[in-house]
């Protein structure tokens, strides 16, 4: 930079020649230089202020825009997260066939303690004992005053409990976000839904996993984040399920039964529209499995319609009659001699209450529930063909119903299937199956002879499997079932406006350690309706029922399971969209003429 000298020689000489003071020139140059320096400093300061002003303007603009976005957006809780491996916290909903909610997620909190951060451990323990009466105050005091640095107190708490813990005011009591499974309908369809619990968990999140029912069967689907907005749709109808459980509970109490189950199944699609097992439980507070006792049915967790594998009695007789018709051995009008005696080896085959029906038609064998008549049909069929037929109906394998408990319902068949087994199995003894197996078998009769697999998922249209009997055999079997209700052992099963066909079955209850009870039975009524054009099959089973009627103690299905099924049919049929109809009767013996 070229600096202007303060005492330029030319100006000094000129000033001396003119007699002026040369010092004035120096002072004037100093003043000019100071003015220039001040101008440059002012320009730099103004530039810096401008830059700073632009920076503050941008910062306040960003903050203002963000505040505006937050003010106009909907409030949302932050997603649960944890350090280390991520813990999945989302789980898809479960809905019924009409889209009504059966299971969903609910945001709550867990409660834990860090004793080193506590101000007054004793007061905190006393406060927690007041909020949670199930906690042991003395144990909390020992834990809080010991050497532990982290203690789980409650894995999930309600908002009211959280506020109560807040009011204790101890900084060592901390909360973690949680998602828990909520079943808004309580006990309704508990054995289908099963329940959920916590898997991996941390302070900031917990993994919700299925522990039973469809929650466990479809756990992979429900936990997949891609299905978060795609609920699992079941075949259940919530309103029908509610009516079923209400009627079944009342019937169980009236009939003094230990337990009860019912299955309502669409005979064309295999959809289980409702299924109940009593006693039940609340999946929101699922009880622990029993650790003692020999009878699993004592637990409310026991699912009677898939795990209850019993000899179901005379409900199997219609399968024998249908197969005999299908093979061309008989028709519904063929006469069978049911008179005794009848022996297979050293074992006599008798009738209920030692009755003797004599020579009756195949239809009357079913109407009167004749053991000897069914046994003689079975001998004509033969053991090999009988096994093939029952195997085609799915009676030898666990039912494919999509809940995890179904895999445990393995049917029990004889090790040696001889002539005696052929006869006894023809009337429902010697082969143990579940009510769900029975429902699938009756559905094949109802839909014209094709097997349908029971399913808990909503289907689109009929889902027919292989044909197991001819349409003619299925039609004649339906006619026999209708006659059982109109004039046979299931006369209490008639429902005005709905033609019901069905078969009763009463079997001695097996002991857990072998043998049979002398005074305890399993009573079953398997029915189809409307009998002229079947849409649904209903199986009702009562465990150890009895009722006093006409001065006598009655245990058979005709007195116990049938009235419950009739009440249930009358209650759910309108909910299923079935309009009552008058059954066509026989024409009168006269002709109308004009006057």
Describe this structure as you would to a colleague.
The protein is an alpha+beta fold. It has two domains: 94-133 and 150-233, Penicillin-binding protein 2a (Domain 2); 240-576, DD-peptidase/beta-lactamase superfamily (Beta-lactamase). The protein is built from 18 helices and 20 strands. The strands form seven sheets. Strands 1, 2, 3, 4 and 7 form a five-stranded mixed β-sheet that branches. Strands 9-8-18-17-16 form a five-stranded antiparallel β-sheet, sandwiched between helices. It has a two-stranded antiparallel ribbon with strand order 5-6. Helix 9 (238-254) packs antiparallel against helix 18 (561-572).
Properties at a glance:
single chain, 595 residues, alpha+beta, Penicillin-binding protein 2a (Domain 2), Beta-lactamase, five-stranded mixed β-sheet, five-stranded antiparallel β-sheet, 18 helices, 20 strands, elongated
Which SSEs are present, and which pair or pack?
Layout: H1 9-18, H2 22-72, E1 94-95, E2 101-113, H3 121-131, H4 137-145, E3 151-157, H5 159-168, E4 173-182, H6 190-193, E5 195-201, E6 206-212, H7 213-217, H8 219-223, E7 232-233, H9 238-254, E8 259-266, E9 272-278, H10 304-307, H11 317-326, E10 335-337, E11 343-344, E12 347-348, E13 359-361, H12 362-368, H13 371-381, H14 383-392, H15 419-426, H16 435-446, E14 450-452, E15 464-467, H17 471-487, E16 501-510, E17 516-529, E18 536-543, E19 547-549, E20 552-554, H18 561-572
Parallel strand pairs: 1-7
Antiparallel strand pairs: 1-2, 2-3, 2-4, 5-6, 8-9, 8-18, 10-13, 11-12, 14-15, 16-17, 17-18, 19-20
Helix pairs in contact: 3-4, 3-5, 9-18, 11-13, 11-17, 12-17, 13-15
């Amino acid at each position: 930079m070229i600096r202007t000298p303060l005492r330029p020689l030319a100006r000094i000489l000129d000033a001396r020649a003119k007699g002026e003071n040369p010092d004035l020139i120096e002072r004037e140059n100093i003043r000019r230089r100071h003015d220039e320096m001040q101008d440059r400093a002012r320009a730099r300061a103004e530039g810096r202020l401008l830059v700073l002003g632009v920076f503050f303007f941008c910062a306040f603009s960003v903050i203002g825009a963000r505040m505006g976005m937050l003010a106009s957006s909907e409030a949302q809780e932050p997603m649960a997260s944890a350090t280390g491996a991520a813990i999945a916290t989302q789980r898809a909903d479960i809905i019924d066939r009409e889209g009504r909610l059966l299971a969903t997620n609910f945001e709550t909190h867990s409660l834990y303690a860090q004793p080193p951060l506590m101000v007054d451990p004793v007061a905190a323990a006393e406060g927690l004992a007041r909020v949670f009466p199930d906690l042991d105050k003395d144990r909390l005091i020992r834990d809080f005053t010991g050497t532990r640095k982290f203690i789980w107190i409650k894995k999930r708490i309600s908002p009211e409990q959280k506020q109560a813990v807040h009011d204790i005011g101890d900084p060592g009591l901390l909360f973690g976000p949680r998602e828990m499974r909520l079943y808004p309908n309580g006990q309704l369809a508990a054995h289908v839904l099963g329940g959920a619990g916590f898997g991996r968990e941390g302070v900031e999140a917990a993994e919700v996993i299925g522990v039973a029912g469809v929650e466990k069967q479809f756990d992979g689907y429900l936990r997949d984040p891609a299905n978060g907005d795609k609920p699992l749709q079941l075949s259940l109808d919530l309103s029908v399920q509610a009516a079923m459980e209400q009627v079944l509970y009342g019937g169980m109490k009236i009939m003094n039964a230990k337990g009860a189950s019912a299955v309502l199944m669409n005979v064309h699609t295999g959809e289980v529209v409702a299924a109940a097992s009593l006693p039940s439980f609340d999946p929101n507070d699922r009880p622990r499995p029993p650790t003692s006792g020999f009878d699993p049915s004592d637990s409310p967790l026991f699912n009677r319609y898939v795990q209850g594998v019993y000899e179901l009695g005379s409900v199997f007789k219609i399968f024998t009659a249908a197969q005999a018709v299908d093979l061309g051995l008989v028709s519904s009008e063929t006469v069978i001699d049911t008179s005794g005696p009848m022996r297979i080896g050293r074992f006599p085959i008798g009738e209920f209450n030692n009755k003797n029906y004599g020579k009756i038609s195949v239809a009357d064998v079913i109407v009167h529930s004749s053991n000897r008549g069914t046994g003689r049909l079975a001998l004509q069929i033969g053991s090999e063909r009988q096994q093939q037929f029952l195997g085609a109906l799915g009676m030898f394998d666990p039912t494919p119903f999509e809940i995890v408990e179904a895999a445990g319902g393995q049917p029990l068949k004889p090790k040696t299937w001889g002539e005696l087994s052929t006869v006894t199995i023809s009337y429902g003894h010697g082969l143990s199956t579940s009510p769900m197996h029975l429902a699938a078998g009756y559905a094949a009769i109802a839909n014209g002879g094709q097997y349908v697999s029971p399913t808990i998922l909503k289907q689109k249209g009929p889902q027919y499997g292989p044909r197991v009997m001819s349409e003619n055999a299925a039609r004649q079997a339906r006619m026999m079932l209708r006659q059982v209700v109109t004039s046979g052992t299931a006369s209490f099963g008639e429902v005005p406006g709905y033609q019901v066909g069905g078969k009763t079955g009463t079997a001695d209850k097996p002991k857990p350690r072998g043998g049979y009870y002398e005074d305890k039975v399993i009573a079953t009524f398997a029915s189809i309706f409307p009998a002229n054009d079947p849409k649904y099959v209903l199986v009702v089973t009562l465990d150890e029922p009895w009722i006093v009627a006409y001065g006598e103690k009655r245990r058979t299905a005709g007195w116990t399971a049938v009235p419950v099924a009739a009440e249930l049919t009358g209650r759910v049929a309108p909910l299923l969209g079935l309009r009552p109809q008058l059954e066509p009767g026989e024409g009168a013996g006269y002709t109308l003429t004009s006057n």
